[in-house]
Amino acid sequence: MFYLLLFYSVWLLPNREDSKYLSNFIDELSKTYGGPKFPPHLTAFGDIQAKPEIIEKIVKESIMGINQFKVKKKALEFSDYVFKAAYLSLENNFHLQTINKKLDHGLSDNGKYKFEPHISLLYKIIDDSKREKIKNEIRIKNELTIDRISVVQITEKVEDWKTILGPINMGTISD
Question: What does the pLDDT look like over 75-112, one tens digit per residue?
Fold first, then answer.
């Protein structure tokens, strides 16, 4: 019998205003450099292989008692990894550490994820000249507000990614 392995990621989402703000950059970079469009997000934990109901329970526990919070930009950076071709590296803070630690504790048997807080802006490998052009043209504000969490089923094609839980607003989960 053949079983399709499904992978999930837990996303922290910027508030609606910051999502719209970041989407403008993502859409423009996608149009200019040919990468796919995707919703702005900060992956709190990824590459999970577990039943959605298990993930849901752990995700809700991870944000228990946490309200919306701010994240600060460290820098606009680039890499040769397609999903981090251009990205905002973020300062790790108490809320990010708390959420990631709870997710790691609950999900590490079902996935391994090296948490490096960032928000990707482009999924497309680009050369140094294009990186320099982006670096010179993009100015992103220094602080963003995170106010929601969701779980997304990840496939090879970005267009086929599907939200299976949420978004759940921060501050709505209590003991």
Answer: 999 999 888 999 999 999 999 999 999 999 988 877 77
Which H, E and C letters describe 29-65, residue by residue? HHHHHCCCCCCCCEEEEEEECCCHHHHHHHHHHHCCC
pTM: 0.91
| Rounded CA separation 167/45 (Å) | 15
Helix (H, G, I), strand (E, B) or coil at 115: coil
DSSP H or E run through 102? helix 94-107
Domains of the chain and CATH, by start: 7-169 (3.90.1140.10)
How far apart, in whole angstroms, are the C-alpha atoms of residue 55 and residue 61?
10
Average pLDDT (44-50) is 89
